From TrEMBL, chain A:
<keyword id="KW-0413">Isomerase</keyword>
<dbReference type="InterPro" id="IPR036724">
    <property type="entry name" value="Cobalamin-bd_sf"/>
</dbReference>
<dbReference type="InterPro" id="IPR006158">
    <property type="entry name" value="Cobalamin-bd"/>
</dbReference>
<dbReference type="GO" id="GO:0031419">
    <property type="term" value="F:cobalamin binding"/>
</dbReference>
<keyword id="KW-0479">Metal-binding</keyword>
<keyword id="KW-0170">Cobalt</keyword>
<keyword id="KW-0846">Cobalamin</keyword>
<dbReference type="Pfam" id="PF02310">
    <property type="entry name" value="B12-binding"/>
</dbReference>
<feature type="domain" description="B12-binding">
    <location>
        <begin position="4"/>
        <end position="132"/>
    </location>
</feature>
<protein>
    <submittedName>
        <fullName>Cobalamin B12-binding domain-containing protein</fullName>
    </submittedName>
</protein>
<dbReference type="GO" id="GO:0016853">
    <property type="term" value="F:isomerase activity"/>
</dbReference>
<dbReference type="InterPro" id="IPR006159">
    <property type="entry name" value="Acid_CoA_mut_C"/>
</dbReference>
<dbReference type="GO" id="GO:0046872">
    <property type="term" value="F:metal ion binding"/>
</dbReference>
Amino acid sequence: MAKKLRVLVAKPGLDGHDRGAKVVARALRDAGFEVIYTGLHQTPEMIAEAALQEDVDVVGLSVLSGAHLTLFPETMRLLKEKGAGDILVFGGGIIPKEDMEELSKQGCGRLFGPGTPTTDIVDYLREKFPDRV
Amino acid sequence: MADDLKKIAEERQKWQQGVEQVEPGRFQTLSGVPVDVLYTPAEAAGLDYLRDLGLPGQYPFTRGVRNNMYRGRQWTMREFSGFGTAKDTNGRYKFLLAHGEVGLSVAFDFPTLYGRDSDDTLAQGEVGKCGVAIASLADMETLFDGIPLADVSTSMTINGPAAVVWAFYLAAAEKQGVPSEKLRGTIQNDILKEYIAQKSWLFPPEPSMRVITDIMAYAAKHVPKWNTISISGYHIREAGSTAAQELAFTLKDGLTYVEAGIKAGLDVDVFAPRLSYFFNSHLDFFEEIAKFRAARRIWAREMKETFAAKKPESWLLRFHTQTAGCSLTAQQPENNIVRTAFQALAAVMGGTQSLHTNSMDETWALPTEKAVLIALRTQQLIAEETGVTNTVDPLGGSYFVEALTNEMEKQAYDYFRKIDALGGMVKAIEHGFPQREIADAAYRYQKQVEQGRRTVVGVNKHALEGEKLEIPLLRIDPTVEQEQHQRLASLRGKRDSSKVQECLAALKAACAGKDNVMYPILEAVRAYATLGEICGTMKEVFGSYEEPPMF
């Protein structure tokens, strides 16, 4: 039987807007993935550490505070530093298009904006990990 | 009368047979309250005019808190704003005041909201992004430079560190030579909804409640025109609650503060008149109006009957409204102007005392000057062109609105009972009860949108193929963070460090004891202790709060 996809949903920084993160976490769980939610106020260091400990395939970051250009690259850098550069980092939030392009250049996975159906996120992860359920 | 109602009910029954039948639940409000095809006096039966509605400015204030409402005084147009440094935001305030705004409303950045200095490790990347960075009295002086604090009223969305940021404001006013008795404004200072929804807390609930009662006592003595708590449903709604949940949790929070004040030995009629509310105005026009009207009636009744407040000022629920940010779409952002206009109209029809209208670009970034000007103009159009302000509570007596007002009230009391059964609001929060109810409602709504059972224009219907964003966005200069670091470093170099240490030690002692913490906080602020230093000192005594993660 194929292994289940393990996803860490994380809220980096001081941003308290957790509606989206919680909705996405539930939707991914309902889609059959194994979901771990970090809770609020995580530093990139804490997130990278949790990703390793939980042995996840994917990290989804939710940032609505405008700090995305700091928090996404820092999380990716720390994962690489810890030898886990293969973990896909994707996310969503209030992120202007140019910043999405900039982050994508730096190796970030897809970034979803407001109005995204959760099914798009599920489809994206299934497409990225076709051998998982 | 009863015979008339019976006759109407019979006629209505007969009439109903000729109306096309639909499956139950097909028509409902945004929050899922079933809506009937027609409302007649039969549906509003049991309504006793003088008991349940009364006259405006009179108990139970269902129709409004003042007798002539907007004829006498327009609502305060108050655009929530803050970004970058104190200097950047000072410029925006002057712009808004020059265009007809009369009240200021400060949006702080995340580090400030969490009581941390701009150079704190956790502040990295967040300085000046979601609001303005204020780390000391020096920043507050800059924020209001050239704005006479005796003449404006200022609302500050600050909760965990409210005592400290308020002290910055009081001290900045001192520097301008304005006595605290003259100051008008509001601090949000609603910690219960932080645990429920907005999540910018510092200390655990108990010490937080103690600081809040210290603030209430200080204000009653020295800043009598200040609203010490703005009990907020806005963030609860934005987190995904229904209208009834927003109403119920917010009012229950308010009643909990009243209990705490009385328990701390304060006279209810001294502090209750300084409590105000802050609600969301969402998309469902009539539901929102019913919510506002029900809120006034419940509060008046509880304050008079349950808490035996004697002064009418203690009974009346005054509120600020912000249109629903979560209803705005990133797609076709210009449509947001129209959404906001409808929501603003509902707030006015619901009798709001002040109003913030969101800008069309806020699903992308903080608003540009142009976008915020359109938002302000939206309010001015309602006030000065539509004529809706000519008469008080124009929808009062609508069978539908009265029935929906009753329904909102009933649902709120259902929640009150559930919360009481858990041991009150603080206990309910510790159980995660309101948090879970809200998360469930948010998920339910998301599913409905995805199944096409709810329409979001421009997103799941009437979408544009290959849409390109055509509005300009505000960018926060990345040098803001560096600039703030330098300001703080230079402040720390210039001030009298031993004086700061002395003040912080005195504050620590007050926190550990029973003395009102506002006095030592003000002393520390005057000595230019920073936000992070003061909050850090308080945390040493009070501890910090962490939420168990759940989804």
